[in-house]
Amino acid sequence: MKAIVTGHSRGLGAAVAAALLERGMPMLGISRSSSEALRTRYGHLLTEVAIDLADDATLAHWLNEGELRRFLADAGTALLINNAGMVTPVAPPGAQGAAAVALAVRVNVAAPLILTDAFVAHTPGVQDRRIVHISSGAAHKAYAGWSVYCATKAALDHHARAVKEDAVPGLRICALAPGVVDTDMQATLRATDPDHFPALPRFEALKRDGELTDPAECAARLVPYILSDAFGEAPVADLRDIAP
User: Fold this and answer.
1) pTM higher than 0.85, yes or no?
2) Which is one GO molecular function term here (predicted)?
3) Does some domain include residue 184?
4) Could you read off the pLDDT of 46-74 as tens digits, one per residue?
5) What DSSP letter does each residue of the chain carry, written as one string?
6) Active-site residue identified among 42, 143, 149, 225
């Protein structure tokens, strides 16, 4: 199996990348920055591409250059994990800003859909193809101040449902919510103006009470599931509802 992971250089993406690389899986990591730690330990397996997924033109140019196609050319099985995302803007309408809204939609929705299309196009002969959208409980639970993030994650969930209906041969897909993980996104939320995010005390309590999941612990559950026979049976899932 070969894997592509976006946002592989930090947080949950880095933990998932490490778990896959530890299994000896060749990987293409796509992120704005590289990971020295992963490169040092798994350099023989890891190829890194520095791309800002918010830049549609740069992403399209990179895809046209054929690096993704060449990476996947000899794959017996193939995996795409659309992990990269952003939690901002955290504010009600009227305080979000056009640029911030557009940026969130490009990173959280457009890039995963573009990469999904390219991934499927470049793996026509691969019998086992798997796509993971890293989703969120916010896809189905509404939070004041979080309308943009909720909408973008709901978009990934419904994209996965629709792709499953396409019944593309050999393709499995799941929008998978990992739970509350101790990443930079959580830190960003805790730094939000409380007037813009009424749920702030809950997220502060999760950190204070040690209820955030360590990224490595999350990856240790997530990776076995996405490699299992059960993956893709449901197009939308929550890791917390899946038996260890």
Assistant:
1) yes
2) sepiapterin reductase (NADP+) activity
3) no
4) 999 999 999 999 999 999 999 999 999 99
5) -EEEEESTTSHHHHHHHHHHHHTT--EEEEESS--HHHHHHHTTTEEEEE--TT-HHHHHHHHHHTHHHHHHTT-SEEEEEE--------S-TTSS-HHHHHHHHIIIIIHHHHHHHHHHHT-TT-SEEEEEEE--GGGTS--TT-HHHHHHHHHHHHHHHHHHHHT-TTEEEEEEE--SB-SHHHHHHHTS-TTT-TTHHHHHHHHHTT-SBPHHHHHHHHHHHHTSTTTTSSSEEEGGGS--
6) 149
